[in-house]
Amino acid sequence: MSLPTVAAYPMPQPPTDGLLTWPTDRRRVALLVHDMQSYFLRPLAFTAPPFADLLANTLALRETCHESGIPVLYSVQPGGQAAHERGLLADRWGPGLSADPADTDLPAVLAPRPTDHVIVKRRYSAFHGTPLEDALAELGRDQLLICGVYAHIGVQATAVDAFMRDIKPFVVSDAVAAFSPDQHAMALQYVADWCGRVLSTEQVRTELRAPQPVLAP
């Protein structure tokens, strides 16, 4: 029930057949750094892709958002959860994170800044049982860039949940990782087919830096 060891693999390209064509708008978008805690990153080889690209691209997205005045939010899971907090996740994954900072902390270079928002979550989706939707509404944001781990679990669930709440999800293809390249590609294709846009880090940064007209709701 523990997390599997993830063999190195190259980042896939975004699908080219997505049906949704929403442009990102720096006045309407927020960035969610999803579950980038040491417990979840430990299965990845730190000196090889996908981890090396995942971390570098997440940092690049965060810097672009901070430079552009785009809100940055983090989802994190609490350590040492009781059985009633874990619910069915305990059946699938066991007890999860311990309360040790070696499990719960993010990489130091990715630690939230004072102006960032931290959302505590206990299920796959970062919306389920959390204030994420209210936080986005208070920030005046109805688009959500999603990066982090794992693409085929919490990232995909959060993208679907955002779509169901009329918040436009954008998954960043080379700023997420999965247990395998097939699962990574599957998650990207699912989002592109059914609920959002999938873009590379460079595509996101180019769109956010471009002149942007006023968009209708």
User: Biggest β-sheet, characterized?
Assistant: 6 strands, parallel
Under CATH, the topology is which? Rossmann fold
Number of domains: 1
Q: Would you tell me the structural class of the helices and strands?
A: alpha/beta
What sort of overall outline do the alpha carbons produce when their principal axes are compared? globular
User: Percent of residues in helical segments?
Assistant: 25-40%
Mean pLDDT: 96
CATH class: Alpha Beta
N-to-C span: 44 Å
Biggest sheet, spatial arrangement of strands: 3-2-1-4-5-6
What is the H-and-E element order? Answer: EHHEHHHEHEHEHEH
Regions with pLDDT < 50 over 5+ consecutive residues?
none
> Would you identify the CATH H-level superfamily?
Isochorismatase-like
Proper CATH architecture: 3-Layer(aba) Sandwich
Q: What fraction of the residues are assigned to beta strands by DSSP?
A: 15-25%
